[in-house]
Amino acid sequence: MNSTTFLLIVHGLLAVALLGAITHQTLSVWAPARKPAGSFVGRFRGVPGAGYTNAIIVLYVLTAILGGIIYPAYRLEVRLVVEQLALWPYHGAFELKEHFAVIGLAMLPAYWYYWRQPLAAEHTRTRGVITGMLAFIVWWNFLVGHFLNNIRGFGS
Amino acid sequence: MTIPRSFPVFAIVFAVVYAVTYVICVEKNYPLFSYHPAINQFGLGVQEPRDGPVMFWYGWIATSAIVASIAGLIACILPQSLARRLWSGWSWLVPACVMVVFCYLLSSFFLR
């Protein structure tokens, strides 16, 4: 296993943790549980969302940095294959992934501010929309990364 | 943790200016530097490919970060009366619009 594969696995593991945290927080802000939940879904969305903020920021930044480190390997080895096979939707999806990731990074200072305790009631919508956008970006980037990784399969 | 009173202004302006600058950098190709992954070399500004492809993504990020940081810091010295009127929703509306612009710019990949 070379260093790029190792970093790709760490990148993927961080992304999984980020995916879980941002999904918890998004559901807690868009569909909060009004009473003590008994079901799995109810407990999933019943978490105190603010507690996830710092972890999400750290995970997002670390995942992005690792993605940036392994990007040259993608550019040299994977993108050529994608182009040769004329897998244009995959190519376009990855281009969106890189741009969305950067836009998400730019929103992190605002995201952090609007999730500060005590939560300001006048910023409820801003907090919810920024969190929803970050969740969309994280889900998109996770799925696109996964699909691209599967084009050639692990270790091929 | 105490933060400066101007931080929300910085955060909103940073998100807005970063998103707008980034899409301009991508569309017009204004990287601060270029990276040649095959030979692991950096060069200032836009460079021609050398022994392999050239990457501009890191350079676009750097250009946008510098512009957005400067804009955010300038916005911090605005009078409080003006700063208080800044709508917090700009911090997501403009980035959301930029994401839609990217979908449009890259739509040819999905329509071939």
Order of helices and strands of chain B: HEEHHHH
Low-confidence stretches of chain A: none
Beta-strand content bin of chain B: 5-15%
Largest sheet of chain B: 2 strands, antiparallel
**Approximately how much helix is present in the residues of chain A?**
over 70%
Rg of chain A computed from alpha carbons, rounded to a whole number of angstroms = 17 Å
Query: Uncertain spans of chain B, ≥5 residues at pLDDT below 50?
Result: none
How many individual β-strands of chain B?
2
Characterize the quaternary organization of these chains. Answer: heterodimer
Number of alpha- plus pi-helical segments of chain B: 5
Of all protein chain pairs, which has the greatest interface, and how many residues does each chain bring to it?
A-B, 32 and 41 residues
Give a count of the beta strands of chain A, DSSP E runs of length 2 or more: 0
Features:
heterodimer; A: 156 residues; mainly alpha; Four Helix Bundle (Hemerythrin (Met), subunit A); 78% helix; elongated; B: 112 residues; two-stranded antiparallel ribbon; 5 helices; flat
Folded structure, characterized:
The complex is a heterodimer of chains A (156) and B (112). With 156 residues, chain A is mainly α. Chain A has one domain (3-152): Four Helix Bundle (Hemerythrin (Met), subunit A), CATH 1.20.120. Chain A has five helices and no strands. Chain A has helices spanning 3-30, 40-45, 53-84, 88-114, 124-152. In chain A, helix 4 runs antiparallel to helix 5 (124-152). Chain B has 112 residues and is mainly alpha-helical. Chain B has one domain (7-111). Chain B contains five helices and two strands; from the N terminus they run αββαααα. Chain B has helices spanning 7-28, 57-76, 80-84, 90-105, 108-111; strands spanning 33-36, 41-44. A two-stranded antiparallel ribbon of chain B has the order 1-2. In chain B, helix 1 (7-28) packs antiparallel against helix 2 (57-76). The mean pLDDT of chain B is 94. Chain A binds chain B through residues 68, 71-73, 75-76, 88-89, 91-93, 95-96, 98-100, 102-103, 106-107, 109-110, 112-114, 116, 123, 125-126, 129-130, 133, and chain B through 3, 7-8, 10-12, 14-15, 18-19, 22-23, 26, 35, 37-38, 52-53, 55, 57-58, 60-61, 64, 68, 88-89, 91-92, 95-96, 98-99, 102-103, 106-110, 112.
